[in-house]
TrEMBL record:
PANTHER family: ABC TRANSPORTER, ATP-BINDING PROTEIN. It comes from Serinicoccus chungangensis. This is ABC transporter. Keywords: ATP-binding, Nucleotide-binding, Transport. Residues 2-228 form the ABC transporter domain.
């Protein structure tokens, strides 16, 4: 469990993290989402005791990180996958990590297998690794002590779609065994695949949080029918907020069941009905557009 309460970081007059509160629960993968510069890394650094908070608190397994006995054993952290020593082999990096957490060298081979690095890849120097391989190695270093909590900054960065699905499987299994995962990303498409719960942050402030399903249904549905004009008329009559999409379908601010019932009442034949595919992305962009630092800049 990670409990964040009113956590704030100010650099002079600039507030990088502004009074954020949320909980990442055991058995769940929590995605921490926000555009570049939103404050994700700063918040994660505060959670791990690397940056002192201006105010508020971050507790992991009930205590501040620094107050945990042997914290690296309980909390696996990957804040910067490219920070590994370029001249060492993957196996050396993982062996050092295992020694540091007191996990024993026996864990190294099992962890390499867990993160999908072959023994041949493990003998190569990290300087020759692709970004995706570094992410796998960084995840391995975080996992090698078998911690109960994982804090991962942009772990999917550099992974191809297959790699992202692989990571989903690994983190889901970890969470199913009772682990707590908090991972950040600036790409909703990544986290939409991997996370169960979402915390959206923009300009240092939390702009939305909830389960993925809640946030997806809040984003509305996309519907299509054999008779598009009749569908549009029915939706207009119902008073539901709606927007025609360029492909001819209709985005409606409602739950799928509401739109299904509406179609039934009007005798409409629906050809598709579902959560708006990129809905979360649209919501993410809308929610953060006012807050995005690029826009502010
Ligand atoms: N030591 C510091 N001094 C001053 N400003 C800082 C410092 N560290 C971070 N910031 C600022 O705080 C803001 C949040 O940065 P942070 O790295 O936490 O964002 P982020 O959400 O992780 O972004 P990204 O996705 O680009 O990594 C940025 O505007 C950054 O410039």
């Amino acid at each position: 469990m990670i409990e964040i309460e009113n956590l704030t970081k100010r650099y002079g007059a600039f507030t990088a993290v502004d009074d954020i509160s949320f909980t990442a629960r055991p058995g769940r993968v929590t995605g921490f989402l926000g555009p570049n510069g939103a404050g994700k890394s700063t918040a994660m650094r505060m959670m791990c005791g690397l940056t002192p908070a201006t105010s508020g608190s971050a507790r992991i397994l009930g205590r501040p990180y620094a107050a945990l006995p042997n914290p690296t054993r309980h909390v696996g952290v990957m804040l910067d996958a490219s920070a590994q020593h370029a001249g060492r082999t993957g196996r050396e990096v993982l062996t050092l990590a295992a020694i540091l957490v007191g996990a024993g060298r026996g864990q190294v081979d099992a962890t390499l297998e867990r993160v999908g690095l072959t023994s041949r890849e493990a003998e190569r120097r990290v300087g020759n690794y692709s970004l995706g391989m570094r992410q796998r190695l960084g995840l391995g270093a975080a996992l090698v002590g078998d911690p109960r909590v994982l804090i991962l900054d942009e772990p999917a960065n550099g992974l191809d779609p297959g790699g992202i699905h692989w990571m989903r499987g690994l983190l889901r299994d970890y969470a199913r065994d009772g682990g707590t995962v908090l991972l950040s990303s600036h790409l909703l498409s990544e986290v939409e695949i991997i996370a169960d719960d979402l915390v959206l942050i923009g300009r240092g402030r939390i702009v939305a949080q909830g389960t993925k399903e809640e946030l997806l249904s809040a984003a509305g549905v996309v519907v299509d029918a054999t008779d598009r004009a009749a569908l549009r008329a029915a939706v207009e009559q119902s008073g539901l907020e709606h927007t025609p999409r360029p492909d001819g379908t209709l985005a409606v601010a409602a739950q799928t069941a509401e739109v299904g019932e509406l179609a039934l009442r009007h005798g409409l034949v629906l050809t598709s009905l579902g959560s708006s595919g990129g809905g979360l992305e649209e919501m993410f962009l809308t929610l953060t557009s006012d807050d995005a630092r690029e826009v502010a800049a």
